[in-house]
Specification:
Chain B: Belongs to the binding-protein-dependent transport system permease family. The complex is a heterodimer of chains A (326) and B (336). Chain A is mainly alpha-helical. Chain A contains 14 helices and no strands. The longest helix of chain A is centred in the first third of the chain and has 37 residues. The radius of gyration of chain B is 25 Å and the shape is globular. Classes of the chains: A mainly alpha (326), B mainly alpha (336). Chains A and B meet through helix 3, helix 4, helix 8, helix 11 and helix 12 of A and helix 1, helix 6, helix 7, helix 8 and helix 9 of B.
């Protein structure tokens, strides 16, 4: 019996993600054209010399696409890391500690959730005199942590009541040590999924900001490419090669990351693997209806549904109900 | 009575969140050293041939008009006072236009494309998600992957593709704007008929993505319910599939109602980029123009309205949950 059952969808998603990472990392080494160099006329059509043609300033679309993908990935990974780290720390401390600290941290999280992050990002972006890629990643990351904090807290609260935590306490383990070695491993599945979602969200937020005119100054990203394509009317003039590559690349990145997260969801939550159960039933040949739900693996809890639909469940309902339980 | 106390606590919480939002709205743009009037006046001097004396008079007038000659805390209270009177200030970029007027002109267009897309997307998406969860097999797989694809696609990318495909290549729909040249907004069938033809592309670019997102969420919830104890018990008793589906649907719908309210909260600010792509004269276009002109009063007004809409939607969700979720009522009474 394999410890982890990866579905075909997982491998497809992983392949797509690796493709985009490869393009972003290795692409600039293969495409030697400087994205800022003028290599032809305005909106030259794709040709043998310029595979994807030129843009509104006569620059190579292919070079911009490759360097733009790298910038977008850097912003996404950096912002995703920042947001996931902040959310993880706050969620862990709140969930494990409970009491007034839990209330204070969750109150802060709920306020941050209630205020739309796009608003804070816009306000911060217009306040900054210059916006490099790293600054933008920091702004997006600092505003993106609340969802992760809520999900992690819900799981940490349930893990806190397990017997092995009591054993660790009785053994004299320190607070930080219990959090790091006994609680965190149980949450890794959610942390991984949260991270993937954070990265995807950050990349799309960067593109949205760029199209509003708040993108990284002095560098090219997929969003900046779209901004210039729109500003110079390339869609209406039919210069499809100016906007189609960044559009398709953004869609590919977003879809592959979400598909990856969804596949991991099936790996970590056995109840979502209906196809496999149905297949197993066919092999055995029984025709009676399913007699029982799949046995949940030990780390799961009844609160999974809260986490799975975390963005749908209202803000305080879980907290309220859980308080009633306690 | 206990429900009233529940509502009171929620109301207080949201007033606190609103205050935090107001402070963010006011102070974040003022993190910059200097003030916008400096750059504004320097732009004027760069562009025109005004004399030094005129520039000085303009500068002083701007400082007075926008209250920038006072300490920051005084500015904040002036700002709050103006807000409570419903006054959003005067535009920098389109001076002396009132921000209230600009927003009032833009808001109906945003709501016009967002509200139908949200409602239709919710109904269609939930239906598809529920059917996919119950049927399983290849229908489930196909519906799931395509819904996931649509929900993951950035809405502005879909907007660009639709605009290029149907507007430019096929040429069957207008490529931008909200109504034809020569017409002005009015309540008449002629104007409505004209505006509706400009409506389809923005609408479809939003509704497809809403359908996808809703279907994915509903499918997950319904699958969880399919594996729950009460469903297995019902099957064991020999209940018909139709009855079981009704039970599942009712439980799976609870978080979908939350999602609907939150989507309606995103009514104002949810389609910023889509409006840019289609040159639709909504809030997104207003915000974009304000950003490019460093028009701080308009930017603050738009972000404030977006925040207010989201907070109001969240509050409505809390009320709705108190009414429709028995667990909330039980917790309030203390039965649990």
């Amino acid at each position: 019996m394999k410890a982890v059952n990866f579905t075909p969808r997982f491998w497809v998603a992983l392949g797509l993600v690796l493709f985009t990472l490869l393009l972003g990392l290795v692409g600039p080494l293969v495409v030697h054209t400087d994205p800022n160099a003028v290599v032809g006329g305005l909106y030259d059509a794709p040709s043998a010399q310029q595979w994807l043609g030129t843009d509104n300033e006569g620059q190579s679309v292919l070079a911009n696409l490759v360097y733009g993908t790298r910038t977008s990935l850097i912003v996404g990974l950096l912002a995703g890391t920042i947001a996931t780290t902040i959310g993880l720390v706050i969620g862990l401390v709140a969930g494990f500690q409970g009491g007034w600290l839990d209330d204070a941290l969750m109150g802060m999280t709920n306020v941050a959730l209630a205020i739309p992050s796009i608003v804070v990002v816009i306000l911060l972006s217009i306040a900054l005199p210059s916006r490099g890629s790293f600054t933008l990643a920091l702004v997006i990351g600092v505003t993106g942590w609340p969802w992760t904090a809520r999900a992690v807290r819900a799981q940490a609260t349930s893990v806190r009541t397990r017997e092995h935590i009591d054993v660790a306490r009785l053994s004299g383990a320190r607070w930080g040590s219990i959090l790091a070695w006994d609680v965190l491993p149980y949450l890794l599945s959610y942390v991984v999924m949260a991270f993937v979602l954070q990265v995807a969200g950050a990349i799309l937020t960067e593109a949205a900001l760029s199209m509003l005119g708040l993108g990284p100054s002095g560098s090219v990203s997929l969003g900046v490419m779209l901004y210039w394509a729109l500003a110079w009317g390339s869609i209406r003039t039919g210069a499809w090669w100016a906007f189609m590559p960044p559009t398709l690349m953004l869609t590919l990145i977003a879809f592959s990351l979400l598909l990856l997260q969804s596949s991991l969801d099936e790996v970590f939550n056995p109840r979502l693997r209906r196809g496999r159960a149905a297949r197993r039933k066919k092999v055995v040949g029984v025709t009676e209806p399913a007699v029982g739900a799949p046995v949940p693996i030990p780390i799961e809890s009844g609160e999974d549904s809260d986490v799975e639909v975390g963005r749908g469940v209202e803000t305080s309902s879980g907290t309220h109900t859980r308080g009633g339980n306690g | 009575m206990n429900f009233t106390r529940y509502l009171g606590r929620k109301a207080l919480w949201y007033i606190g969140a609103l205050f935090v939002a107001l402070m963010l709205n006011f102070f974040l743009p003022r993190l910059i050293p200097g003030n916008p009037v400096d750059s504004l006046v320097s732009q004027l001097s760069r562009g025109g041939g005004s004399s030094g004396e005129q520039m000085k008079a303009i500068y002083e007038n701007y400082m007075r008009e926008f209250g920038l000659d006072k300490p920051l805390w005084q500015q904040f209270f002036i700002y709050m006072g103006q807000l409570f009177q419903g006054n959003l200030g005067t535009s920098f970029g389109q001076y002396p236009a009132s921000v209230n007027g600009l927003v009032a002109n833009a808001l109906p267009w945003s709501i016009a494309i967002q509200l139908p897309a949200i409602l239709i997307g919710w109904v269609v998406g939930n239906t598809i998600g529920a059917i996919a969860a119950f049927k399983g097999g290849w229908f489930d797989r196909g519906a799931f992957v395509s819904s996931l694809f649509l929900s993951s696609m950035p809405y502005y990318c879909l907007a660009i593709l639709l605009l290029f495909g149907f507007g430019v290549i096929l040429g069957v729909l207008p490529v931008g704007g909200a109504y034809s040249f020569g017409l002005s907004p009015e309540l008449s069938m002629a104007f409505f008929g004209d505006a509706i033809s400009y409506f389809w592309l923005p609408f479809w670019s939003l509704v497809l993505i809403f359908i996808g997102g809703q279907a994915v969420g509903m499918r997950s919830m319904a699958i969880y319910e399919l594996g729950s104890d009460y469903v297995n018990y019902g099957r064991g008793l020999g209940l018909s599939d139709n009855r079981i589906v009704r039970y599942i649907f009712r439980n799976a719908m609870l978080p979908q109602i939350t999602g609907l309210a939150l989507s309606i909260g995103g009514l104002v600010g949810g389609a910023l980029i889509t409006e840019l792509v289609f040159s639709y004269p909504g809030i997104g276009t207003l915000l974009f123009n304000a950003i490019s002109q460093n028009d701080y009063p308009v930017i603050q007004a738009v972000t404030l309205i977006i925040t207010l809409a989201v907070l109001a939607a969240n509050f409505a969700v809390e009320i709705a949950y108190g009414l429709i979720d028995p667990r909330i009522r039980a917790a309030s009474i203390g039965d649990r």
